[in-house]
Each structure stands twice: as structure tokens, then as C-alpha cells.
Amino acid sequence: MIDQLRELEDLKSLVAAKQARITVSFDLSQRREQAAAGVPVKEQGAGVAAQVALARRESPARGGRLLGLAKALGTEMPHTLAALESGQLNEWRATLLVKETACLSAEDRCAVDEELAADTGTLTGAGALAGAGDRAIIAAVRAAAYRRDPHSVTRHAAHAVNERTVSLRPAPDTMARLTALLPVAQGVAAYAALTRRADTLRSSGDERSKGQIMADQLVENITGTPGGVSGIEVQLVMTDRTLFQGDSEPARLAGYGTVPAEWARQAVLGQQERPGTGAESAPAGAPETGVRGSSDIDVWLRRLYTAPGSGELLAMDSKARLFPPGLRRFLQVRDDTCRTPYCDAPIRHHDHIIPWHQDGPITSTNGQDLCEACNHTKETPGFSATPAPGPRHTVELQTPTGHTYHSTAPPPPGTAPDAGRAGAPAGTPTAVATRPPGAVAPLTKTAGAVGPGAPARRRDIRPQPSAAGTQRRHNEHGPRAKPAVQVLGRVVPAGWSRT
User: Fold this and answer.
1) Were 148 and a residue from 108, 235, 245, 267 both cysteine, which residue would form a disulfide, CB within 3.0 to 4.6 Å?
2) What is the pLDDT of residue 21?
3) Which pLDDT belongs to residue 152?
């Protein structure tokens, strides 16, 4: 069995090398076709990475990296490609070699590839890098690159400051990873400040762990709110059963993903669990889960009805040139992330599937949410998209080679996996709980009936408050009143039970 594992690993490396060679050939063929079609030189190669990503069932960003890897191996690093083909390197370590030589010229990169050939070609033998881990390989490549062109390496490091950014990625158990890519001096200074604060609080008797204190302090420093966030819009999508009847159907948090039903109910009531608190530290009268009111923010509820059987969110039409705010919110709730297959990047553009200049209507059926890169790729010559029939909103994407891919909107919470088949349950009202930024703003209303075959209807459950009504509510509850939920025009207090 060990021998089989080794042989299969070698086979994976061989397949990766073959894919790299095919990718290079495909890129060249696409560029020739685009050149023959009169595409400017600077624009040739557009859309190739997206097609590679679709074929390999990867995200567009990953497809771009795979294309870059293939071109570097196929044109500038033949020894590394040979080591990959023979199974002495896997695809990840070949990627490391390519990445660490990206700042070099083609000539210097070839020289580094040749210099390390004796080692990279005998990683499983007696070479200097035999048995080396990723860090040792990176160090060896960096040293070789610096010897060839120290100025380019230094210049590349100086320009890396322009790549500083902050990103957010989901983590298990309703957690998230907030990552900052910073210049080393700023990163070390920020970490040192958080560490000093944690050490000070720990020495004064704080029972939280050092990591918990650092995380809480980071949130407080950024938001200005101890233990949480206020005044920022947060959208939760859940079924009415989850919100009103204590059902266990999970909800969906925009920008994050699936969250447990109980967590969603607590979020709607403004009772999210505070870090470091538990049942043993809860104040008198707090729920048994150890949560307590965290802010005085009002919560709006807006119902979006799903179509019977399919779970499709009902359409909202408009004749405007751009998607109006209400329809944009509708598309964001429906699509959740970029609609390109295998891409789960955050939404950046509200796209007309059939372009507006081709008389594409401004409707939810002709709308989809895309990331910026995918929207630009879709406009590349040879790409086309059309709405397609399906149990939920479906888009058919066709690439320049004639291959087609389908994208179906994710099912709303509470939608059965087989929704759309005969005998599927009727439509489900879906509640969207929104924490608005700042003061309460008026909400619009769309008239119509709800039911099979009836026009779309979206009713905003909270009525439009007048200035006098807002002042009266302020006087009755006070500026520090606990959060309340507006349900069918009635105020439900924060302590409202699930029954």
C-alpha cells in the first residue's frame, strides 16, 4: 500500500506537468485566434485564465495562478518542469519555485532554474534539498535569486508595500478570520501593542486568555465599541420558522455563510454572545446561554417570498438604466457571492446577464452578482451568458471554445435539496433581518398579491416612522433602551421568547 501511495503521488505530479503543457498550448492557440480577429496585442490572452479555471473546476483567481505557473514552467524553468514530470517535485513545491523567482528577468530565472537543477531534480535522492521542507526550499530559491539579481529582489520587496490589504474569510463554528497583510514594521508594532495590552490586563486579574484579550482589543480598537459592532448593516436570511418558532433550520449571514439557527435568533434580538462570557458570568435575568443585550440598535425585518416548490426568490422589475437600490439588495440576498461557477469571491458588480446595450431588461431574472474580475471576463469577446431554465435562477455561461457552464443561485434557508420537483413543498416566506447603520430610514413598499402565479410582492414589515413617532419612542424607551424587533408593525421587546 505504501508503494501504491508513492506511485500515485508520482502520477499526480506527472498529470500536473501534463496540465501545465496543455495550458501553455491553449494560451498560445487563443492568442493566435485573438490576433487573427484583430484584438490589440495588449488585450490578447484575455479570458484564458477564466477558461482554465472553469475546465479545472477552480475559482478564476486560482485559474490565473495556474496559468502563470504553466507559462513560467513551460517557457523559463524547464528543469523544474522536468522534476515535476518525473515525480521528484509536486505541484505545490513547483509553485513555490516559480513564485520566489517571479521578480527576476526571464534570463535570470532560467539561470536560477539551472543552478538548482541538481537539487530540485534529486529531492528524493542525496541532493542538498533532499527531504527539505517548504521553508528550506523557499530559502534556497531566495538565496539563488538574490545572488543572480540583488537589485531586483530588493526592488520587489520595496514594492510589496503596495499589496497591503485586509481580507475576511469564514472559519468553522460561526467564527471568521480577519487577516491583514502589512509592512513588517507596522505588523510587528500592531502585534506588540496588542501583546502589551493583554499582558497588562492579565497581570491585573483578567481571566481571559492572552489570545482572547488580543482579539477583543483588536475589535474594540477598530470599531470603537467594546465587545461588538454597532451601527453597521448586517443581513441575516432565515425562514419564518427559524425566527418565530424556534426551528433548527440554519440561517445565512451575508458575507459569511451558514450560521446556526439559535445564533441567528440571538443576533436579531441584539443578544449576541460576548467573547469570554458564559453562563457562570451572566448577569441576573440573562438567558441561560450567557448572552446579553449588546446594543440599542433597532432591527428591521423584510419578507422576501420564495416561489412555491422551487425556492426561487420572486422577481422585482424596474425600467431604470441601473439596478435600483431595492433590486440590488434583492440580488445580493439571492446570490450571496459571485455567480461564476467555482468562484466564491465577494460581490462587487451587479451585472446584466444580457447586456443593457443589447436590450437586456433591468429585472431580477436578467441580473446576477459578480466579482469585478468575473464581470470583466464576461465582457471578453467570445464569452456570452443567458438566463436558463432551472429550479432556481440559473445562468448559462458559454466560453470562446463553445463549452457551456451553468450557475444556479444558492437555495435560500429552508429550501429542500429537491426543490422544483413534483410534490415539493409550497413557497416559504424568508425573513431578512437587517441592522441598519445610524438612524432609522424609511422603507419602500411594493404592492401586489402573493401566491402561485401571482405578481411578485415584497412587503417591508416595518412602517415608515414619522419624526414625532421617533421622538415619542425615544421618550418612552430612553436613549439606552434595549433592542426591539419590529414584526408586522408591532414592537417585540428584546426579552421576547421564541414562542
Assistant:
1) 108
2) 96
3) 82
pLDDT bucket at 461, cuts 50 / 70 / 90:
very low
Q: What is the pLDDT of residues 348-382, one digit of tens each?
A: 898 999 988 888 888 888 999 999 999 999 988 89
CB 498 within 8 A of CB 289: no
- Residue 63 pLDDT exceeds 80: yes
> How far apart, in whole angstroms, are the C-alpha atoms of residue 238 and residue 252?
7
Q: Would you say 254 and 413 are in contact if contact means Cβ atoms under 8 Å apart?
A: no
Residue 423: pLDDT over 80? no
Q: Which residues contact 151 (CB under 8 A, 6 or more apart)?
A: none
Place of cell 487563443: 30
pTM (2 d.p.): 0.62
Of 319 and 67, the one with more pLDDT:
67
Amino acid code (one letter) for 443? L
Radius of gyration of the chain (CA): 28
pLDDT for the residue numbered 431: 54
- In one-letter notation, the amino acid at residue 461 is I
Answer yes or no: is pLDDT of 481 > 80.
no
Q: What is the pLDDT of residues 164-207, one digit of tens each?
A: 999 888 888 878 899 999 988 899 999 999 999 999 999 999 99
**Other residues' Cβ atoms within 10 Å of the Cβ of residue 173:** 7
End-to-end CA gap in the chain = 57
Cα Dmax for the chain: 83
Distance CA 109, CA 114 (A): 9
Give a three-class secondary structure readout of the chain: CHHHHHHHHHHHHHHHHHHHHHHHHHHHHHHHHHHHCCCCHHHCCCCHHHHHHHHCCCCHHHHHHHHHHHHHHHHCCHHHHHHHHCCCCCHHHHHHHHHHCCCCCHHHHHHHHHHCHHHHCCCCCCCCCCCCCHHHHHHHHHHHHHHHCHHHHHHHHHHHHHHCEEEEEEECCCEEEEEEECCHHHHHHHHHHHHHHHHHHHHCCCCCCHHHHHHHHHHHHHHCCCCCCCCCCEEEEEEHHHHHCCCCCCEEECCCEEECHHHHHHHHCCCCCCCCCCHHHCCCCCCCCCCCCCCCCCEEEEEEEECCCCCCECCCCECCCCCCHHHHHHHHHHHCCCCCCCCCCCCCEEEECCCHHHCCCECCCCEEEECHHHHHHHCCCCCEEEEECCCCCEEEEECCCCCEEEEECCCCCCCCCCCCCCCCCCCCEEEEEEECCCCCCCCCCECCCCCCCCCCCECECCCCCCHHHHHHHHHHHCCCCCCCEEECCEEECCCCCCC
Neighbours of 101 (CB within 10 A): 27
Contact 465, 213 (CB under 8 A): no
